[in-house]
Amino acid sequence: MKNSKELIVIIDGNSLINRAYYAMQRPMITKDGMYTQGIYGFLNMLEKIKKDYDPDYMVVAFDVKAPTFRHKQYEEYKAGRRKMPPELAMQIPVLKEVLDAMNIGMIEMEGFEADDLIGTISKRAEEQDKRVLIITGDKDALQLAGDNTGVLITRKGISQFDLYDRKAFVEKYGFEPINFIDCKALMGDQSDNIPGVPGIGEKGATKLICQYATIEEIYEKIDEVEPNGTRTKLMDNYSIAFMSKRLATINRNVPIETDFEKYRCVEADYAKLIEIYKRLEFNSFLKRLDIPQEQSKNQELETYKVKVIGRDISEDDFLKEITGKEPVGLRIYSDHSHMKAPELDAFAIFAGNTVFCGHDFSALVKLADRIDETKTYIYGHGIKNEIYDLMHIKDMKFFVSFDTEIAGYVLEPSASDHSLETMAAEELGVSMKQENEGQIGMFEDFEESIEDMASLEFAVINRLMEIQKERLKAEELTEVFEDAELPLIEVMASMEKVGFTLDQSYLKKLGDEFAKREAELTERIYQLAGEEFNIKSPAQLGPILFEKLGLKPAKKTKRGYATGAEVLEKVKDKHEIVPLILEYRKLTKLSGTYVDGLLPMVAEDGRIHAAFNQTVTATGRISSSSPNMQNIPIREEPGRLIRGAFVPANENYVLVGADYSQIELRVLAHMSGDEALIDSFNRGLDIHRATASRVMGIPEDEITSQQRSDAKAVNFGVIYGMSSFGLSSELGITRKDAEKYISDYFEKHIAVKEFMDEQVRYCKEHGYVKTILGRKRHIKEINASAYMVRQLGERLAMNTPIQGSAADIIKLAMIRVYNALRGMKSKLLLQVHDELIIETSRDELDQVKEILRDSMENAMKLAVKLVVDLNTGENWLDLK
DNA sequence: GCGAGCCA
DNA sequence: TGGCTCGC
């Protein structure tokens, strides 16, 4: 429906944010305690409106707190309406900031409601021959519908809505929009506390208005009105009806300016908008930002000369060109596949202010040769992928000078996303949206798209690199970046490339056994339940346990009974079925994740090539995915058998595992300088037993295994930042006892207490904490106003230096091990937080053990010795 | 405490 | 999307 008239969209700001707020089931809250779901929902709606209607003008009307003329007429007006919760009220000023940054007009006026402003603007707009679209959650505005004025009423939250113009309104109600006020005068409105005529409801009112149109007309012809009851009610409430009408009538003559040019839609101020979105943690909006050319700082980005190898420059000349001392930028466009050798599409090299693009696989081989021979330093964004690809071409040593993804991570490890697109938008205000995004090589001119993309990517990477280098230096992060993170990239790529052989027939057999036991359990559970049902569904399991079998429900969730392991564990002895369900759960998890999940991940070479990610965790640890090799079961019997499926390449190899003994507690001893802790480690004591002995004042040889395990839980609590609440449920004691336990612990470890307090104090002052290598983690939660959030922040502040420093140490050790193994047959396969797994050639066994012990124990000099336990085995299960 | 992955 | 469970 094309229309030459200009369109003005008028939004009822209060109404819409209110709808948005209540439409969102879960609260959205930023790390520093700002509620955002109202704004979020509002902006989603706004985006949709812009997209669907492409308005020429836009204005958002707000209510002002001051009383309006309606309150003066009728004190009870809007009384009894539930007060806006402070979590929502605080969002309105921020919403206004966002709208301001978007350059969307706003209007509010003392003494008038948003409705009146909307009514007035729409009237003036109609007079100026514009089309109007009113967006609100309030049906009152329907009275404004006209031939050129649409009213869009949100419904069921904000995703659905009804759109009325005059015609649609008449069709639905049977009378003119303007008479909606007469209808309301009769039937009243609870939400606004408009009384209406008692005894006349929606049906009666509609019928009367269809017949008489206005209440004036009704009273004019009151004698005709039927039935008698209705007439009596009307006659008894004459003044109420007219007052109600006055209250319901939108004032369309508010004294406002009528120059709408200031409401004309123009581009947002993206710099401001980005700042606010970052503050509100609206990452999805950030990513979607479509920054126009003239505002995008793209223009500030350099554009480079592009040369296509084989077309603009010969391969030989290209290779000569990149043989300088300067580091070169490298991008490889490939699928980086972990299931087979990666499929290489193209590559781009940035050198001498020129982007060289190549599509020829043989050129890549020569490129690898050249980088290897001349020891050319490379840089890029997420260059692990490039290294991974090149490793398939050639076994070589890489010299990495910079990686913008890793730098972004070191600068802000808790950021959720370090992709080039996001960082370009956040740091440079540059949109990297490309016309042919995601369609490289499928449509359009393949050559041209690679060239454009590479050119833009290098412009962004180069610019980011400049900024990041400064920031790394200013924030004293160069040590962790250069000594740990950069050299680690090649190690990670290598672990991905090498992979871990999976004994598929072993695993299948194990899977069959799981399935057999699963079938037995299923049958028995059905028997005990007296019916067949889906055991995996908490919705079905809940009623069976807690209603049919009469077990006592301990907890409830939103929909039904909680059936988590913690709950079931408590009623384990109450019914035979419960332990079976627990076992069934574990078994299905095992077969789903570790049997059926693992088998399809075996690559063509019979090995599993997991991905290792260096930019995910907030503490500095690395993570693993596809599959996650860091959570393969170990604690319990059937699960740990999975480890038996991970085997060396062939009979010439064995596995060697090397794990740090109590690294986190040793780090704590070192960082806090706690004499008792240091002494225990130096004497080589069982640390949990020693802790129990100190805290309880009992000689070590009298510590029971229960006491030892309690102390172990406390030590864990210290490492993982557990709360007294967490500790109490872990130990099955009351919160009070847990608090007592913790305070006893601190009494005997005063330096640890002081260390913890200092971390919190430092974090409150600086907003971050640091690890041994100077790695930082910003913790916004530390200054949150909400108690729970602040508590969390304090635990993070205490716990991150310990976990993060341990992560630092292991990273240094990995780099040492990897470099020491260079040129040998033995390869580093995995890192599981405090242990390394090496596939070891039997003839290198002694040497590998020596390398591991030396590299790991001397990775860093601490106040306590770093102790490494070595194990050798024919499969991963053997390494215990 | 942090992360990954499966299932409904 | 959230509940659940695995690891450290």
TrEMBL record:
One of its GO terms (molecular function) is DNA-directed DNA polymerase activity. Its EC number is 2.7.7.7. SMART domains: 53EXOc, HhH2, POLAc. CDD domains: DNA_pol_A_pol_I_C, DNA_polA_I_Bacillus_like_exo, H3TH_53EXO, PIN_53EXO. Residues 4-266 form the 5'-3' exonuclease domain. In addition to polymerase activity, this DNA polymerase exhibits 5'-3' exonuclease activity. Belongs to the DNA polymerase type-A family. This is DNA polymerase I.
